[in-house]
Amino acid sequence: MLRCSGLRVSLAANLKALKRSTLNRGKFDQTVATVPAAHYADARSLKQHLQHLLNISRFRQRLIHGGAVLDDAATVASLTDVELVVLPFSTDSDVRKFIHEALHGQVAEVEEMLQENCDPNVFDVRGYTALMYASCTGHVEMVQLLLEAMADPDLPAVITGETALFGAALRGKEEAVQVLLQAGACVNATSTNGVTALMNASHRGRVKVVRLLVAAEADTNLAAKNGATALTNAALARKMETMQLLLDAEADSRRAVPRCVGLCTLFLFLISCEIFFSALTFMAGASMHQRLVATIGILATSLCVGGRVQVLCRSYVPWLAFASLTRAARRSRVCSRRFRPPSTL
């Protein structure tokens, strides 16, 4: 057995102060805790207490008494002295199997692999962790197990930069979101594109998740790299209840105009201008038939471009106007129920 720390734990009748372990001439023989034996029914509960004290996962702990390793179900109430050994993570773990079992909620299999010192923060070939998969599928018991194994809830994915909270929020797994938030997950973590979990939940209209994130003090006015906010996503997806919830949480409707809408409009305008001037140059030396064909092409292109701009305006502007009206009504203490979303979109 590899002894990485060899910390000693003394069990007594009374609770005493915790003593930190220190190196002394290369030997590890220091008392790390003195705890009341009657408070712990088995070795597992003692390991959980030591995890809280030492910030070491219980799955990496081995309690030794009389030269033998104690099982998690072993009784420790009658013991007076045990030795704690902290094991490193195994490099021979089957990462693919570990991720697969976590994805499908196989708690017993995952716990067995954790007991074999599998790293809970290991990435698969796609750059995701077991906690990310368990969160997006909503396996709450699995999420709790991985968090107990000290899986990092704020660990970003390799490519996207999304944390475990993103997948749970996107798919509306409110129980998983609540467990992650209780574990201290950063509610305002951003991906590589500047997207937050609140933006994902708002786009899908996950009202319960949005309410949880807002209650956890999520910033409703953070903007992604394209300029979109959570209110923008809710407006574009026509999620009225989500919009009202964000507005009640002081979301700024003036910041809800994404740069992408303006850029798309400008891009389409430049294309139409380029086609128009190219057609004028062509018609300068063209025959009557060629001019007629070019004119029809210009009209068709103009209608196409104008239609796309009109679609952008019709699908976005009315909902943004509704958000502004609702916000103004709330500020002036006018019942927001008088306002209704546009019926023709």
From TrEMBL:
<dbReference type="Pfam" id="PF00023">
    <property type="entry name" value="Ank"/>
</dbReference>
<dbReference type="Pfam" id="PF12796">
    <property type="entry name" value="Ank_2"/>
</dbReference>
<dbReference type="InterPro" id="IPR036770">
    <property type="entry name" value="Ankyrin_rpt-contain_sf"/>
</dbReference>
<keyword id="KW-0812">Transmembrane</keyword>
<feature type="transmembrane region" description="Helical">
    <location>
        <begin position="292"/>
        <end position="311"/>
    </location>
</feature>
<keyword id="KW-0472">Membrane</keyword>
<dbReference type="InterPro" id="IPR002110">
    <property type="entry name" value="Ankyrin_rpt"/>
</dbReference>
<feature type="repeat" description="ANK">
    <location>
        <begin position="193"/>
        <end position="225"/>
    </location>
</feature>
<keyword id="KW-1133">Transmembrane helix</keyword>
<feature type="transmembrane region" description="Helical">
    <location>
        <begin position="263"/>
        <end position="286"/>
    </location>
</feature>
<feature type="repeat" description="ANK">
    <location>
        <begin position="126"/>
        <end position="158"/>
    </location>
</feature>
<keyword id="KW-0677">Repeat</keyword>
<feature type="repeat" description="ANK">
    <location>
        <begin position="160"/>
        <end position="192"/>
    </location>
</feature>
<dbReference type="InterPro" id="IPR000626">
    <property type="entry name" value="Ubiquitin-like_dom"/>
</dbReference>
<feature type="domain" description="Ubiquitin-like">
    <location>
        <begin position="11"/>
        <end position="79"/>
    </location>
</feature>
<keyword id="KW-0040">ANK repeat</keyword>
<dbReference type="InterPro" id="IPR029071">
    <property type="entry name" value="Ubiquitin-like_domsf"/>
</dbReference>
<protein>
    <submittedName>
        <fullName>Kidins220 protein</fullName>
    </submittedName>
</protein>
